[in-house]
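User: Show me a protein chain along with its predicted structure.
Assistant: Here is one chain, sequence first, then structure tokens.
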Amino acid sequence: MTESGAQKSTIVRAESDRRVARRRAARRRRAALQLAVVRARLGLLQRIAPRRAAQHALDLWATPPDGAGRRRDDRPAPGTLGSVTTDGGSHLVVETWSPPSGPVPAEVLVTGAPTAVAPSSGSTPGGTVADLGAVYLVHGWGGWRGQLGAFVEPLRAAGYRVVAFDALSHGDSGPGRFGPRRSTVPEMAESLAAVVRVHGEPTAVVAHSLGTATTTLAVRDGLEVGRLVLVAAITDPLGELERFADALRLAAPTRALLRALILDVAGRPLSDLDVLDTVRSHPLPPALVVHDRADKEVPFEVGAALAAAWPEGELLATDGLGHHRLLRDPTVVRTVVDYLAPVGVRAAGVGDA
């Protein structure tokens, strides 16, 4: 590249960086303005109608966030779409991918490039693909199934059937019992259980963020699974409640009313939602905990403590991937697939470059 060309390239990159910085600054200003409006409304309600203030806070608490990062689509190619109806009559969107029918290049396990062989639920004794059962992909709060798409092709190549779904009031699924854009941790756990009843017992579950807590709750409630992978895990969903209340400047009486409303909505003891309580009181399958030291949403110490407390728990610590990028990092994906692979398959070389 000529000096002039290099200068132009540098100028273009600098301008692109400035545009990104301006967009981020604009989003921060909008968020600050929205928070100020909410605080003012709640401040007034707390003085004249505390119960209405608590109900309004509950609506905010039960509303999943949105944003481009949470709608990122890393699926290599569309799978087979279907739906599952919950006991309450709500509809969940489910997407599945079958394992390929023939040998798969080893690089697919690293890059996630779509395989060229036809999907099949069978196995080829002379090849590298075996039928190893189903791996479920579970998104977090405000997420959707496409966020975990980078795992699809490597898991298929290793011989797994992959099942991904959108929890109620998330992604393409319909609303749950609390209406559009409203959900709870128990309802998300029930979404997983409903999909499993139709698509079969999981060999493993790969879950992200709040999805790790909802998956653990499903296991507490009797979901049988061989192994878990908990990425950017949240261990105490209600521990976030105090930070939420602080951000909204809720007074003590309003906080007490809000907690009572959450207990009523959950329909079960709130201690059930505490992942570490489940670790202490229930039998659990082996788990790999993946957490980044630079995670700004859930501190690294949370994941490290979970791995230490979990029976047969292992920790994969990463650097510089934050809360979301580790879902598509090739090293993380490869390590997860290797962790799930049976010993015999590992010995045969699946997952090796």
